Amino acid sequence: MNPCKLKEPKVINNALLEKCVQEQGPKGEAGRLAQIEKVPLEEVPQIRLEFLNILRIDHLWVLTSLTKLNLNNNLIEKIENLETLVHLVELNLSFNKISKIENLDELANLEKLSFYDNEIEVLENMDFLTKLTVFSIGRNKIAELENVLYLRQFSNLKCLNMVQNPCSETEDFRLFIAAFLPHLVYYEYKLIYDMERELGQEIFGSKLRQLLESEEREREARMQIDKEIADAALHASSFVEYLNTHHLFDSLFLNDDDGKHLLLIEDAKDFYDEYEEQFLALCMQIFENGQEQYRLRTDEIDQFMKCVEDAQTSNQQESIFQKHMEVFIEQKAEVFYKIKGIQKLLNNNEITYEEFIDKCDVLVLEYDKLLHDIWKALMKLELELYEQMEEVNQTFEQSITELVNQFIESSQGYFSQIRDLEVSYAENIGDLALKFQTNATLSEEIVVPEILKPIMSDKDALHNSLATSHDVHMQIIDAREDTLSGNARDWLEDLIDNLMKNEVKRNRGKILEINHFLDIQREEFDDLNAEYAPEPEEVASAD
């Protein structure tokens, strides 16, 4: 074959995959059978696509069962199109031209990963690889020691290779690795001894302590955020999530740069602190009111559900309903006994066939009446229950609607007070800013902070900044009030709709159950008739 042909860049396609599977499959008789049966690509557990001059990772989505993939010694420049290989445990991308680690988020089961001999400068985008055990990143372009610290998050990482990176050429790099990666067992495939770890901790002790303190602060901050998120999820049922924290107040100034800059004016911080204290107090009142109202709604729902359960169980199924069923079963057994009796009389020639038919007709009419009577009785009970449930639902709807409206109205009162606080704060800051601007204009001794100069350039600019800041604050407060009211009303609407839907569903199910029961009773009667009623030919031959 032409050697130039071998060096041509290739793309991954079905033909290439099937060829590799065949070449890498079992040999001998097992290989011959595998070639005949052709293992489906979606069942292939591992494949080597090495030394093929592949330019781009593609068309691997067909290998859904793949656990091991070798793409080393190719011309790949970008990591891509691996998101479907969720079962992948081992990935080898050594000896390529990759410059950035990316698109690995879906490979959560990855344990072994190699980027040996590429062009990577930064360790990043690997946060989801929590099972990573072996990582080879030697012969790349990693220069900063901070990249080593990125690997501290991988508690399962036991083996690391970073040889021939710029950072690895620094003095005591192996000791740095030993000190800052306490879970690591092997570096450059050599065991890390306790002595090395202790020496590394001694050399880099100061930096290590600073890092541990920083990580502890970050951990506490994450825990606080996680707690707030968990609390918010819990408090979402009471529609007051985050109102027991600084969240709403902080959001006022989050994107309000002018509002934050104005706090540089002398005495502005005093107004801010007072505003914050009163604002948070009102938020806490909304929160506590929301929790109390939630308990009241929960009690109301519990009482309603108990009432419904009592109505459906004791009043219907256990007493009256059961009594009707018992009477019907007794009467049905009596009719069936009579049919068997007249059949016996016919068999003993004590009655004629015509008399037998006449008696059967009477029993058919009697049984039809039984079925009709039990149908009427059961449907009457169900109708009574349905009407009773409608009345209970209406009463409950009125009660729960009143509770929700009370909660919304009381919350609106608190939000109105918050808006009053914002108006007062805006006026105080406005007066202070205007006074500061006037004094700064009249006296050169007053130094205007650089960041305040655009705001203080003229009165129009100041008025615009003050108005914009105030409008932003009011919009955020209004939006939180609308969210609370909207969520409460949506919850109420869903609750009432579900009550109606569930009752209609229960009613229809019960009607179907009654009709199905009667169909079975009719079939049993027809089967009995067919079993005991002789054919006319049999009677004629007997005669």
UniProtKB/TrEMBL annotation:
GO terms for cellular component: cilium. It comes from the Eukaryota. The keyword tRNA processing does not apply. PROSITE patterns: LRR (PS51450). It is found in: Cytoplasm, Cytoskeleton, Flagellum axoneme. Keywords: Cell projection, Cilium, Coiled coil, Cytoplasm, Cytoskeleton, Flagellum, Leucine-rich repeat, Repeat. It holds the Pfam family LRR_9. InterPro entries: Cilia_flagella_integrity, Leu-rich_rpt, LRR_dom_sf. SUPFAM superfamilies: Outer arm dynein light chain 1. Belongs to the DRC3 family. Cilium-specific protein required for cilia structures. This is Dynein axonemal assembly factor 1 homolog. It comes from Zophobas morio.
